[in-house]
Amino acid sequence: MESKSPSQSKLPKSATPQKSSQAEPAGTPTTPAPQSWMPWLAAASSVAMLWLTGPTGMGSLGAGSNRLGEFLWPFAFVALVPLFWLVRSQASVWKRPVYLAFFAYYFLSLQGLRHAHPLMILPLIALAGYLAIYPLWFVACLKYFPNVGRKMGMGGNVLWAATLWVGGEWIRNYFATGISVLMLGHTLVDMPGPLLVQIADLGGTYAVSFLLVIVNAGMAEAFFALRESRRPDLEPQFASGPPQAPKWKSSVAVASIALALASLYGAFRLNEKCEPSSTTFLLVGRDEQTEYQQDIHREIAIYQSYAQQTIQAVAEWDQPIDAVVWPESMLSGGQPWLIAEPDLVVPRQPGESQANFSPQEFRRLIEQSQGDFTTRSVMFLDALKSSGRPAPALIGGCGIVRYGAVPQQFSGVLQINPQGQVAETYAKNHLVMFGEYIPLIKSIPVLRDYVPPGLGLDAGTGPQIFEVAGLRVLPNLCIETAVERISVNHLAELRTNPPNVIVTLTNDVWFDHTAVVDHHLRCAQMVAIGCRRPILSSANGGPTAWIDSSGRVVEKVPYDQAGTILATPAIDERTSLYSRLGSWPAGMAAIILLIASLQCVRTRRSIPSSVRTATD
């Protein structure tokens, strides 16, 4: 009777080596399978370290929002090492641990979304399930296609891994409307300085993610080499043999050089001086609870609360204020701004065969509404002049309805001049799927007339500039700072006469002070660096904050309190490479990821079924 070696006796039956006329493809593991619990531990360790580098507020589940990333950000440099172990291991089960661990990570990090509406739990589950695909995709490409990095020469392993990860981030930032929250690069926003994230003006958050994967991959290479040097009895991890000393040393060298260059660049950027400005913005933030379908009386009450707080704050400051900034929707007060286009067609009510008004009558109604809106604005601005100073301009979130050939509803921003007249408007470019629109529903004639209020919004088509005391202001609304490309694309369109400051208005009270609010703030900080423009954020129940053009939070109002910030943002004349080039380098990484994925499928199909079962 033939005896088995100890290592063979531990192999699962499906993984027992079998004779085959085909040579096993490069990358096929040959080491004994680890214990079944080890892949679960590896995946859980990775997501635990990522979670600790970020805001961990659990809202109504517990301790409220806190930013552990201020102290635990170094975990970002090793958080992916367990995933690289999974790539090299012969674990028979690895897909399920990776997917479920990252599903839990995204679900817990974004669980505050469920507070917006009782039905939001379903989109939350779908979003977490969707985002968890990308880490699994990353591990799969490295596992089934591992030798490309080795063939690339010095440091190829780390560069290959970083390219695949950033390619996945680019795809998720564009596919299915896109979302930039919880990118790997955001884990370093809270580091002191913030030194390393200054490279975001070269390639956005993608550049910081690229750096972090390089460092993680270098750490993993060094760990594996050290482990194998201390355990000479271990079998080679891959058919091509264990990492040779020059290979892993080159990976560590590339990671060290990248880290050093990023640090030097960050120090250089942080030491550059910006021109002081005398233009003052009063950012007003409160914590007014809102409802998904809110009655007009509640909207009026919220408007009055903001007006009273603003009047009191303006009276307390001993210097003139050029512009008051209110959050998203807070300026409406139950009265959207109506616009009559030259091609106005009077809309019909659902079920009616003809309109109730003639075009002339409808235009008069719109003019009357505009007059009422202006009268209210004049009264409010007159109250601000009671302190003896000139009235400021008012920038606030307000609904906008344009009546043309087809009525259009927008979530917008108005600039009201000191005389109470609406000077400029901006219509939100990026809408929230299922929160502000349902895909394709307006293309279905039977359904489009029955869209619930708030779900029939239209998207704006480009940026707008507000002039405030000599400064050019770029308005931004709601989640647009959490979709990084929006502000970057706006700057690219305005490159001949770029804005001096970005003003973002948001209503984050929906998320009940959970970590979602902090994640939103992190996104705004990275946008400030990527665009090299200060960001002034006015929020209801969210990040009312003054962020400088290096991503540092100069001042912030606590999320659950009412407060004001008097901001005098500095003028930064630097033009970032990111705003010139956009994200096409990360887009090239996405193409490489897709090509690698196709090759992975081909390689996977070429593996004998007996071996394939053992490496799933």
UniProtKB/TrEMBL annotation:
Keywords: Acyltransferase, Cell membrane, Membrane, Transferase, Transmembrane, Transmembrane helix. It is found in: Cell membrane. InterPro entries: Apolipo_AcylTrfase, C-N_Hydrolase, C-N_Hydrolase_sf, LNT_N. PROSITE patterns: CN_HYDROLASE (PS50263). The chain crosses the membrane at residues 40-59, 71-87, 99-116, 122-145, 157-184, 204-227. Residues 1-35 are annotated as: Disordered. Residues 1-14, 23-34 have a biased composition (Low complexity). Pathway: Protein modification; lipoprotein biosynthesis (N-acyl transfer). Its EC number is 2.3.1.269. Residues 282-571 form the CN hydrolase domain. It is a multi-pass membrane protein. Its main location: membrane. It is an enzyme of class 2 (transferase). Catalyzes the phospholipid dependent N-acylation of the N-terminal cysteine of apolipoprotein, the last step in lipoprotein maturation. Belongs to the CN hydrolase family. Apolipoprotein N-acyltransferase subfamily. This is Apolipoprotein N-acyltransferase. It comes from Neorhodopirellula lusitana. The gene is lnt.
